[in-house]
Amino acid sequence: MDNNTVTYEFVKNDPELQTYIRMADASMKAMGFTEHSFAHVTKCAGEAGDLLEALGYDARTVELARIASYMHDIGNMVNRTDHAHYGALIAFQLLRQWGMEPEEIGMVVSTIGNHDEATAFPVSPMAAALILADKCDVRRSRVRASKPEDFDIHDRVNYSVEKSNLVLDRDAKTITLKLTIDTELCPVLEYFEIFMTRMLLCRRAADALGLQFRLNINGSDIL
Fold first, then answer.
1. Mapping DSSP to helix (H, G, I), strand (E, B) and coil, where does residue 209 land?
2. How far is CA 123 from its chain centroid?
3. Which end of the chain, N or C, is less surrounded by CB atoms within 10 Å?
4. Spatial contact of 114 and 122, defined as CB atoms under 8 Å apart
5. What does each of the 223 residues of the chain score in pLDDT, given as a tens digit?
6. Strand order, beta sheet including 212-217
7. Nearest to 34 by CA among 73, 65, 90, 85
8. Distances (CA, A) of 15 to 87, 88, 145
9. C-alpha–C-alpha distance, residues 193 and 11, integer Å
């Protein structure tokens, strides 16, 4: 297969990859985690690619970031623990099968392998962009439980988020996660209880892109 055919559109429409995304999300559902299916990976691909595009990166880097972001959670079908590493190995096989050039495979695999907060590091602009897109995907529609009494802390935090936007200010060199949270459903402290590690990783990722990461909750700057 010609390398030029390995586009984001091609990857999105590959039936084998779609199966793995569904299976990965099914495993997450069985373990009680929030949604990690097509809505999540599509949003991450959009956010990561748009960020790099806005920062002036070339079109192929932007496309590879979208590809990596769309594939980043397939390792969850193996196990949640070390899913970034499993996902990178699965992606390696798929990308070789599709005929992608080795250097580009390395870029995508490295991005996928560096997105989980337990082991992640923004080793490249693509990895930094995925970290920001992934860790800032907090929204009500990711909650699977239908009854509030069945919510765990992750459900409460996500369900309490009424609005969520990742905003780049190129002039100020900042990237801000702006959240509107219903504090009657979830105190701000609970957000930090589960997301502090992720927010610190976002700060490191933003720094790798020459930006300052900010967190704004209900109109107040928190970070």
1. coil
2. 15
3. N
4. yes
5. 444 579 999 999 999 999 999 999 999 999 989 999 999 999 999 999 999 999 999 999 999 999 999 999 999 999 999 999 999 999 999 999 999 999 999 999 999 999 999 999 999 999 999 999 999 999 988 999 878 878 888 888 888 999 999 999 999 999 999 999 998 888 888 888 878 899 999 999 999 999 999 999 999 888 7
6. 161-169, 174-181, 212-217, 220-221
7. 73
8. 17, 18, 28
9. 36
Residue 97 tokens, joined:
């099968």
The number of residues in the chain equals 223
The tokens of 209 are what?
A: 């892109």
For residue 3 the two structure tokens come to: 């390398």
64: nearest Cα among 32, 109, 22:
109
Using DSSP's 3-state secondary structure scheme, residue 207 falls into helix
Tokens of 148: 């509030």
Q: Residue for token digits 């599509």? A: 42
Distance CA 97, CA 16 (A): 11
- Alpha carbons 2 and 51: distance in angstroms, whole number: 28
Tokens 């999105």 belong to 12
Place of tokens 């559109």: 9
Q: Which two tokens stand for residue 2?
A: 């010609």
